Amino acid sequence: MKKIILTVICLIIVFVVPIVGVSLYAANIPDVYGRTYLAAMADKYKILHDTDGEKIVLVGGSSMAFGIDSAVIERELGMPVVNMGLYAALGSKTTLDLTRSGISKGDIVVFAPEMDKQAYSMYTNSEITVQVLEANRSMIWQIPVSEWAGLFCELPDYITAKKSLNKNGVPDPTNAYSRAAFNEYGDNVYDRPYNIMPDLYLPANMIDINIDMIDGEFIEFVNDYAASVRKVGARFCFSFPPMNGAALTADSVYEKRLEVYEKLREKMECEIIGNIEDHIMSEGYFYDSNYHLNNSGVPYNTKILIGDLKHLLGDDSVTDIEILPPSGAEHDDDETVGDDTDSDLYEYEDDIGGWAIVAVKPEAKDKDVLRVPRSYNGKKVYKIKRGAFGGSSAHTIEIGDNITALDDGIFADCANLKTVYLSVKLGANDGLPSVGGDLFSGANRDVLIYVPSIKYGAMCTDYFWMQYSERLRVAK
Question: Is this model's pTM higher than 0.70 or not?
Fold first, then answer.
């Protein structure tokens, strides 16, 4: 008996004490994520649990957050609506887990994840989950205990990030990626009049629809979730997100899209509403990603969803929504060009928004410092393409705020690179350079990005840039 008691005491000392100690230490450092985009999940969670009676619950990634006018759905269908969509990088599983406890009898749950391998998988992200939980730590009880170890392992990095943000500036975003951008339904209502993507789509986040994206374990999880929804007397439906037609890969042809749709119909043990084709839309309906709609895209997508839900419910009434034409791109009237001192060191490609740098010329590959020019031959330089600095021996690269698009893998094959200085526009709502999820593919692990102090906090918590927060530093 003594041996058992000693074993238990040892286990408590080895495992429980460190967990409690680190958790308490983390909780005593002032919170930093309360005004950020991720903190909106706490508000959505509260809306879900505070909404009485039968309701429509929308679940997905940011395409759902940016794609729906819930008030119009409520008006047309006579049921309250809760939009739980937030961020695909949080993981479809985690978003569904955080939603599960708020589903009750008579509810209709619509799940429409982004169409990519990650969203159609059991992927979870402990770093993002910890940040989400900061705004309401009680939500941890909705996360399976089997995943708590991953959350605990993330705490040291979370503590480091909190200290850095408290020192350099707690994020207080005022753009679309802020907690304040959401309304009482959970819709993102920040004003988005145009497509602001430099190429009208994000090349670093192409939409590749093929049968390989369907993960069997994920389908099993969704089917189990759907069964739990039906068990409480609610209804579960699978649907599709709005997709930028200009971002479809060359392989995502109609036949392959149909194959995916038929496979889902075969494997999903739930109702599938709508189809993939209706959700492929003009680039003029999108804002800053291949899944985020602008002001004119929201009513278009909302009307599609209402039509699908009415069909599900046997409602043949006319949906009274004005469909707006695609608003198109934001017009850049600034024809001013700037310093082109080093412009002859690069090779260019004429692209939608100006010149795109595609390579460093041989005579520049031995330079210790490379500076990206603002213009070339009287036209602005706005983009850097994959592998552009490949083979360079530079240890430092300086990128000005004229660059609005950074392709994945631009630093590949730069063996000596250590430091990137990235200038960004300093206005409160000026957009950061568009970036994908694989910017440092092929680059050294210790490459750091130095950014202006006024933008450090915003970039560490930005929807697109937060994945690189460990590489970000404040420029002196």
Answer: yes
